[in-house]
Amino acid sequence: MEITKDMLIGELIRKKPEAVEVLMRFGMGCVGCPSSQMESLEEAAMVHGLDLDKLMAALNA
């Protein structure tokens, strides 16, 4: 499954639970918060000041 920047965090976690470890490593500790159900990876990266390209590479590795 290819992970895309417009994928919602909640959707990603449901489809690929092992992604939680990557998200946590990047500083996204709120993977279980309600906003994760409506927030895309791109939006979350922007809010957390993360490099989206690096995050996407790690999630798709």
From TrEMBL:
Residues 3-56 form the DUF1858 domain. Pfam families: DUF1858. It comes from the Bacteria. PANTHER family: BSL7085 PROTEIN (PTHR39341), DUF1858 DOMAIN-CONTAINING PROTEIN (PTHR39341:SF1). This is Hybrid cluster protein-associated redox disulfide domain-containing protein. It comes from Tissierella praeacuta DSM 18095. The lineage of its organism: Bacteria, Bacillati, Bacillota, Tissierellia, Tissierellales.
